[in-house]
Amino acid sequence: MNNYETQDNVEKTTAQSPYLYSRKSDNQQTTISLGSKVLGSEKVLFLAGPCSVESKQQMIDIAYELKEMGVTALRGGAYKPRTSPYSFQGHGEKALEWLAEVREKTGLAIVTEIMDPHLVPLFEQYVDVLQIGSRNMQNFVLLKSVGKSKLPVLLKRGMSSTIQEFLLASEYVLSQGNPNVILCERGIRTFENATRNTFDINAIPVLREKTHLPILADPSHGTGNSKYVLAVSRGAVAAGADGLLIEVHASPEEALSDGDQSITPQEFRKLVEEIGSIAHAVNRTI
Ligand SMILES: [Mn+2]
User: Fold this and answer.
1) How far does the centroid of ligand 1 lie from the alpha carbon of residue 261, in Å?
2) CA 258 / ligand 1 centre spacing (Å)
3) How many domains does one find in the chain?
């Protein structure tokens, strides 16, 4: 049907847009329960943890520390999509078991990336949120399979995708009957190479206008450098993000992946404090 195929049409007729992701009114907002909190509410939520799940003890230690700082959900990769096949690929199912144990102990919700559509039933046994990584944003088989799950889906923006492509990827999930999609801006590739990616702050107000889905910001991948994570976090919350997804590692220099962009628990504590002030300035809380 032509209406669904013409991008121009979508851009111009948001009010009558046929898409499930489309905002139909100013106050329409999808909310998603995470642990004891709600994403998409006036509260800005923190989702944090190491890039990769490296050991059970690592996850237990960091989880207790982050929980005490007000974090809602623990992130950590069990299956890692690495640029090189020789880089650490993750501990797989064993890591899912560790994550479930950490949830049991701490009450933190668990967010972890899924790459294989066949593993949806396995992930459903262990985790709370299915993350689709940037590299898989247009893996339509995967999007359809998580669309049939009861778990919320955290969809990261493809590193070379437009906002419209990002929204249409969310439609793949929504159209399968899963209404709980979280959109995550994580930086895009541009000509700029001073940072790993260019965090697209514009995406936050654009998404806010076009969709009722909750919006997360990932300044860790958005910058690729721990030195810039705090400043970009501030900007994202000021621009209207509903939450932050941050890589935190007890000793970033020893991390098995993304150490350069991981902040320490001490730095994260400072970030939470500063975000509290920013949230307050834009009539929100943490
Ligand atoms: Mn990472």
Assistant:
1) 8
2) 5
3) 1
If DSSP codes are grouped into helix, strand and coil, which group holds residue 216?
Answer: strand
Q: Is 143 domain-assigned? A: yes
Give distance in angstroms: CA of 5 to centre of ligand 1.
34
Q: What range does the domain containing 216 cover?
A: 36-81+95-281
CATH number of the domain to which 219 belongs: 3.20.20.70
- 9 inside domain: no
The Å distance, Cα 6 to ligand 1 centre, comes to 34
**17 alpha carbon – ligand 1 mean position (Å):** 34
How far away, in angstroms, is 50 Cα from ligand 1 center?
8
Q: Are 217 and 251 in contact (CB under 8 A)?
A: no
In a domain, 43, yes or no: yes
Task: Please compute Rg for the chain using Cα positions.
Answer: 18
Per-residue pLDDT of the chain (286 residues; tens, 9 = 90+): 444 544 544 444 445 678 999 999 999 999 999 999 999 999 999 999 999 999 999 999 999 999 999 999 999 999 998 999 999 999 999 999 999 999 999 999 999 999 999 999 999 999 999 999 999 999 999 999 999 999 999 999 999 999 999 999 999 999 999 999 999 999 999 999 999 999 999 999 999 999 999 999 999 999 999 999 999 999 999 999 999 999 999 999 999 999 999 999 999 999 999 999 999 999 999 9
CA-CA distance, 157 to 203, in Å (whole number)? 10
71 burial type by CB count under 10 A (0-12 exposed, 13-18 middle, 19+ buried) = buried
* Distances in whole angstroms, Cα of residue 242 to Cα of each of 40, 50, 104, 124, 251: 6, 21, 26, 25, 28
Distance 96 CA to ligand 1 centre (A): 17
| Dist. CA 156 → ligand 1 center (Å) | 12
Q: Is residue 6 part of a domain?
A: no
